Amino acid sequence: MTAAFDFDSLVTHGADGVRRFEAAIDGMTCAACIGEIETGLADLPGLSHARVNYANRRLVLEWRDESFDLPQAFERLRRMGYTLHPFELAETEREETETARWLLRCLAIAGFAAMNVMLLSVGVWAGLDIDPATRDLFHGVSALIALPAAAFAGQPFFRSAFAALGAGRLNMDVPISLGVLLALGMSVYETLTHAEHAYFDSATMLLSFLLLGRFLDHAMRRKTRAVAANLAALRAPLACRLSADGAETLTPLAKIMPGDMVLVRPGERLPIDGVIATGASRLDESLITGETRRRAVAPGAQVYAGGMNYDGALTIRVEAANGATLLDDIERLLEKATSARSRYVRLADRVSRLYAPMVHLAALSTALFWLWRGASLHDALITAICVLIITCPCALALAAPAVQVVASGALFRAGVLLNSADAIERLADADMIVFDKTGTLTAPEPRVANAGEIDARVMDLAARLARGGSHPLARAVAQERPRAAALESREEHGLGVAAMVDGLEARLGSPRFCGLEQEAASLAALDPDVSLVAFRHGDATALFQVRQALRSDAVETVAALKARGYAIEILSGDRVEAVEKIAAALGVDQWSGALKPADKVARLDALRAEGRKALMVGDGLNDAPALASAYVSISPIDATQITQAAADAVFLGERLAPVATTLDLARKARALMRENLALSVIYNVFAVPLAMAGWLTPLIAAAAMSGSSILVTLNALRGGGRTSGVEEEAPPLHLSPASQGREQIAAFDEARDPVGRLEAAE
Amino acid sequence: MTVLLFLIPLALLLGLGALAAFMWSLKSGQFDDLDGAAHRVLMDDDVEKKK
Questions:
Q1: Which architecture, in CATH terms, is A1-86?
Q2: Which end of chain A is least crowded, N or C, by CB within 10 Å?
Q3: Contact residues, chain A, for B43 at CB < 8 Å
Q4: Contact at CB, A116 and B15, closer than 8 angstroms
């Protein structure tokens, strides 16, 4: 590619003249790469700082000197085998990092306080003959540590509790905050009145346990976000901008303004929405509408980001969508679906709605009971507060998040990234699955359907030739032999690729280019869906039928899901005949085609009205509203950005199996959450009567609380194991064409299973 | 028991020292890349410089 890259737009300028540039690195496979990259860049003139972040595969470059040349750094890394994908740090990710640091700081302080207060408390408990003055001293020192620590480290809970109370709701943080504050308040009072028991240790220990759970939950989600952001950067939101004098610059999408002219070559995806200024071509807009037949476009036509340009170079004037275009339609639907999405109440919150009033009632009745029995007001109140302290839902608050952390870790390893926090619970509830067809059940790129009938030598040669072509159909042919080396070839635009082989010219391209028009016409008459690529080398000729193929494991996955008892349905925007074939190949009875985005939403609403909880799996722009209005949704990583944002989870890789894995893991996680909640209820059943009877001592409180928390966490760890039956694969962290190629080589041999092909339908 | 008047502040000071060290390392970005740090310790970059 000849276009220069517009780097300046991505460099951030620091306060003291420091320039900073951050990029995702593709091709980093092992820890040794850290040193290789950093030392490789170290001697570049002007560069003051180069640091690789291995955890999220990113590189930060810093310099002040004007002499530093950023493209040179790119070039050097490229020669070393790494590709940099610059991106702008999203505001949300920056905030997440800040929150994580804040939580860690809170955790450190709570941990410090808990350990030191425990040190003093153990002294009080162990020294049975401790004299009251020393005990008061210990309690006093504990108060000095615990009060400021709780004021700082308790903030995450206090804030959330206040927000919930302000909105007239109850969440788990309300009883937590109440328990901590009451425990501290009562302990201060007891210390001042020289009493025997103080609960400073319980309050600080509670805070540190809960903060640990919250921090881990947050860290897991942040890790998933970082990978998703990297993948977005690797999928290169770059556009080739044409300036007035015809110069081409590669520019990040965010910097493209309405009115700019953008060049799209054949074989590239359209990066933006706009109107065609010059050029004519055919576009594969299956990612947008689900329609697999290509649309011919001419100057003046409205085009959308995500379309694949097939035949000719296009210049597009960038325009924000206006009026009654498809995109506006989708955005309107999406807005409606997102706002109408019934707010799912999480399992833990449902429990806490029941739990909080019950606990407060128990405390109240305890106080009244002891007053009735003739106890002093002070003793009755102390006993009631003890009930609140022991019921402070430490185990309950950890029960769900601990499972959440472990389950999202397991999902991450299976190649599924979660977008929303409550997705796991909703996935576990799903009882039917609605698939989109194009790009979801079928592979995002078309494949050669009749590869088996073609002579292997012809295939080899054709694939080598196809390497030199940029046309999407040529790429499909090249896919058949992923390891083939490219030939020295020349590309004739709109016709095909040609090269000299053994003294004879070999050609790959349109049937006319190879003189196979008659054969092509007869084949095309049989099946209008197929695209033909012709090949000629002397007398050896071949016609490759290129078409949408099913994902390599679509048949097995759909069968496996059926076997698990899920109802399957296909909703597609493609033509009815095309959907029918796929449905037959997969053995799905419920299907409908030629659906508009609104029709899909209507169908999902109807399912909801029937009481079904549908999991929607889709990738197209036209699926976005359906994904947002479904009970829960997943999209593949090749989906358009709007679609990914609307889905609850995103799965990586070419295979469909992660959908089944996700459902299995989610069900397992939900079972564990329920077990954990049951465990913490059992704990309360034992501990509350003790507190009501007035037998609670700080030692018992500390032991019971930490014991139940540890039990619940250990139980949650069982969710990390492998699920049986479904094969897991490591998430491919890089999706650039180069590494995708490598990945496909690995997946290729198994992918050749003829059952996985669409021709099964014929 | 007067020894306690000396020992308790000492214990607290030690704890506070550790807390301060943690806060400092958090602030200076040492917790940003835990995976990388685990590998960096094994690198011989300082050895090569001496050659």
A1: 2-Layer Sandwich (3.30)
A2: N
A3: 34-35
A4: yes
Domain range list for chain A: 1-86, 94-227+344-395+689-714, 405-443+551-667+725-761, 447-547
List the single residue in B with minimal CA-CA distance to A42.
Answer: B45
Token pair recorded at residue A211:
């903060």
Interval A675-728: pLDDT, tens: 888 888 888 888 888 888 878 777 888 888 888 888 888 888 877 655 443 343
Task: Report the complex ipTM.
Answer: 0.86
Percent of chain A with pLDDT over 70: 88
Query: Model confidence at B23, in pLDDT bands (50, 70, 90)?
Result: very high
Residue where the block lists tokens 């990040």: A252
Note whether A31 contacts B36, CB cutoff 8 Å: yes
Strand ranges for A527-640 from DSSP E: 531-537, 540-547, 567-571, 590-592, 614-617, 632-636
Chain A CA closest to residue B15: A112
In sequence order, the β-bridge partners of residue A545 are: A532
Tell me the residue type at A58: R
Chain B's closest residue to A104, CA to CA, is B26
Q: What mean pLDDT comes out for the span B29-46?
A: 78
Residue contact A134–B43, C-beta within 8 A: no
DSSP character at residue A441:
I
Q: Which among B16, B26, B42 is the nearest to A101, CB-wise?
A: B26
Distance CA A513, CA A710 (A): 72
Name the catalytic one among A217, A436, A553, A574.
A436
Find the CB nearest B35 among A35, A54, A145.
Answer: A54
**A405-443+551-667+725-761 maps to which CATH number?**
3.40.50.1000
- The superfamily (CATH) of domain A447-547 is Calcium-transporting ATPase, cytoplasmic domain N (3.40.1110.10)
Token pair 């000629």: residue: A536
